[in-house]
TrEMBL record, chains A, B:
GO molecular function: D-lactate dehydrogenase (cytochrome) activity; D-lactate dehydrogenase (NAD+) activity; FAD binding
Pfam families with a match to the protein in the record: FAD-oxidase_C (PF02913), FAD_binding_4 (PF01565)
Enzyme class: oxidoreductase
Highest taxon listed in the record's lineage: Bacteria
Gene Ontology biological process: lactate catabolic process
SUPFAM superfamilies documented for this protein: FAD-binding/transporter-associated domain-like, FAD-linked oxidases, C-terminal domain
Alphabetical UniProt keywords: FAD, Flavoprotein, Oxidoreductase, Transit peptide
Family: Belongs to the FAD-binding oxidoreductase/transferase type 4 family.
Required cofactor names: FAD
The protein's name: D-lactate dehydrogenase (cytochrome)
Length: 456, 456
């Protein structure tokens, strides 16, 4: 109660501070298997000044602060494992400026990607990154998210030109500018992107946006086996055509989709593709893609150009995670997120399947084939210690396989709570310097404590 | 002599250490107007162990170390202004591994981009970044270089997946991995890229490479005036076609080219374009580009598909800087490097022309129109204090104009010695943290002292 009133005094509106059980409970969990950790209090920030005052207070009182958006994170990033303040930024959801002739927007961190795309559409513009969930842009920057379009547009770190952030001591700073490139000094913008709320709280982002292509074509290409799909993917990447998305969905996932949606898709490895550009260019690229797929023994090649039919075709891919969740609705989702060198992907997916089978559990596999990033989704009961142990063992073996080949434990979901040990293994060289950076920007360790590393 | 023998003892071969006057003199200058600063000794590193031993020695003796490649930098980055060691990395020029199916290469820092492209060609691959000079890849990473293809492939920071670096204390660490994306912890790779030799010495790079497109077409499009060219550039960017390069050359530069090469190009603002992809896609994009150019009053639209003719067409752009140098061969080059929001570019170039004219000097303008980055090249005599003052005043006004519009003082050349004051102005918020980072990684300030900031 004391904390609640102390925080309320810092903010314009007492409604911005809540200790209600339901709200605290909501803010104690994300989309993942990670068991909840309740905050003592939830603060709804409405301005950078709110954030600044809360952090300055927290810093002087050594009070943990865990920033969050719509909490679609998959590794427990937003769970306040040490209690304290859950700093909710969803009310900072204004699109501050659209600069169509600069291909830029300025947004508050609580704006979601779909909200932004809706606002951009009248300008013929889009923010193409698509991690699946309708995440906030602040959250996407915090984890360096990407998703199905990274093969064409790159990851979140490549989209952020400028950040306004509040540091642990309450100081508000800007890190970048409005030009599309810069070589002016150390790249603090890129350091803060992907820092998972442990170095600063993002209060504003300047992002690149892109022209909506004249034509977009979606393709579903079915293959007799995994390596045929993998070969086709490589040959397409190597052909010099412009690929908008290239996703691999395995037969187990297709089965989950059929069961969830009542569809009857082929139970075989399937590539979901998207091509975009000028109409003639897309037709040309589509012809090459079809040829490449056929050369790899593709058994079915379906394409759609009209928006609705195209969306329907992609539904199977878009709803895949949801479909897998529906195989065990009473459980929670655990998702691996390794990324391997491109040439290793088919083999890595086969190895993952063998690991899953050896442990007798159910797992669906989805891959961003253009990046070497794939996910195994399994449904777990966080209260069942044995089930959690098996799931973690499967994850551990999949991560180890990736690390042995120069890959990473996380392509896009971030470290959070779930990959602390793997980060230490993957970046043994730089971990001491990551901890030194943490100490530099957050000497009292109030920002999202317990994430990325346990101690620093 | 004492220093020479101390360093020689650290290295396998006494030939690796030189105090010869000619060699020291070479290592006291770069391509730019900056007056030379002689090193006491030049060390030619041949391995990471060499670098490590030299740095450990230098760190314990507080001896300045200025790393360098082929010294094509344009702001004095490689000039050892505080004496000490010029650490020459050009003998570390091995291409260590080409991984065609991963679209990756591993190289030593002294490999130049043309050397790499020659080795990649048999694989149908390319490293597309083109800053003009045949710079070393280590140097390009150190300044976050880019050039004419950034509009398509991004800047150097987006190409580097992994670095092996030696820290000031001699410690050798790896920062990244072989996967195309990662969200594993703080992005040290991106922090070291662009750090201009002030945080570490790069001893190995893992870089993305790309399929050579099936077809490439080069275009020269001549416009009646600057804003027509600017409008055409924007409309092309907005059309959703894939642009490989899009460069603006002003009439003054075309004049210098004509004089240097005996050509008779139109003395009007000219866009040099490149389109690439599958043959049909390129033909389609080319048709759209022509239409867009015509709509903006283009008076001439010449395109070439065959390699030789294409290169010839691009000669005027490629050799533009050289042509400007030939207008005053006894002088040295000073180049501005601001980058502004895209919509501001035409106006910024007009303003730059007015600033140049108001000061009665000769300046040629070239622009990377897809990025908002443009250069004014003027020839100066570094010994002529008045001429240097005028040139700096012109630069100052051009930078001020860019900063007032959210731009940057340097789009791709870096800060070096020449933009220390502008960096402080542009990044007043983050400068204290840049200095703190410098202190963290190089507490004794031995690495490239005097660059980026005077003191930290």
């Amino acid at each position: 109660m004391e904390l609640q009133s102390a925080l309320s005094e810092l903010l314009p509106d007492p409604e911005q501070v809540s200790v209600g059980e339901t709200i605290r409970d909501h803010h104690g969990q994300d989309l993942s298997y990670v068991r909840k950790g309740l905050p003592d209090v939830v603060v709804f920030a409405r301005s950078k000044e709110d954030v600044s005052r809360v952090l300055a207070f927290a810093d002087s009182h050594r009070l943990p602060v865990t920033p969050c958006g719509v909490r679609t994170s998959l590794e427990g990033h937003v769970i306040p494992v040490e209690g304290g303040v859950s700093l909710d930024l969803t009310q900072m959801n204004q699109i501050l400026e659209i600069r169509p002739r600069d291909f830029l927007v300025r947004v508050q961190p609580g704006v979601t990607r779909m909200q932004l795309n809706k606002a951009l559409k009248p300008y013929g513009l889009q923010f193409p990154l698509d991690p699946g969930a309708d995440a906030t842009l602040g959250g996407m920057a915090a984890t360096n998210a990407s998703g199905t379009t990274a093969v064409r547009y790159g990851v979140m770190r490549s989209q952020v030109l400028d950040l306004e952030v509040v540091l642990a001591n309450g100081e508000i700073i800007r890190t970048g500018g409005l030009s599309l490139k810069s070589s002016a000094g150390y790249h603090l913008t890129g350091l803060f992107v992907g820092s998972e709320g442990t170095l600063c709280v993002i209060t504003e982002l300047t992002l690149r946006v892109y022209a909506i292509p004249e034509t977009t074509v979606a393709v579903r290409a079915v293959f007799p086996h995994l390596s045929a799909a993998g070969d086709a993917a490589f040959d397409m990447m190597n052909s010099g055509i412009v690929i908008g998305r290239i996703e691999l969905v395995d037969e187990f996932t297709m089965d989950a989709v059929n069961r969830a949606k009542g569809t009857s898709y082929d139970l075989r490895p399937t590539l979901f593709l998207e091509f975009h550009g000028s109409d003639a260019a897309v037709q040309a690229d589509l012809a090459i893609a079809r040829e490449v797929c056929n050369d790899s023994g593709c058994v079915d090649f379906i394409f759609e150009t009209e928006t609705e039919a195209r969306n329907q075709l992609w539904d199977a891919r878009h709803d895949a995670a949801l479909a897998v969740i529906q195989t065990a609705p009473q459980k929670k989702m655990k998702v691996t997120d390794v990324c391997v060198p491109l040439s290793e992907l088919s083999q890595a997916i086969r190895a993952a399947r063998a690991i899953i089978d050896a442990h007798g559990i159910y797992g669906a596999i989805l891959g961003h084939v253009g990046d070497g990033n794939y996910h195994v989704i399994f449904m777990v009961n966080p209260e069942d210690a044995k089930e959690m142990r098996v799931a973690e063992e499967v994850n551990r073996q999949i991560v180890r396989y990736a690390l042995e080949r120069g890959g990473t434990c996380t392509g896009e979901h971030g470290v959070g709570l779930g990959k602390i040990a793997y980060l230490a293994e993957e970046h043994a060289d730089t971990l001491p310097y990551m901890k030194a950076l943490k100490k530099l920007f957050d000497p009292n360790g109030i920002l999202n404590p317990g994430k990325l590393f346990k101690r620093f």
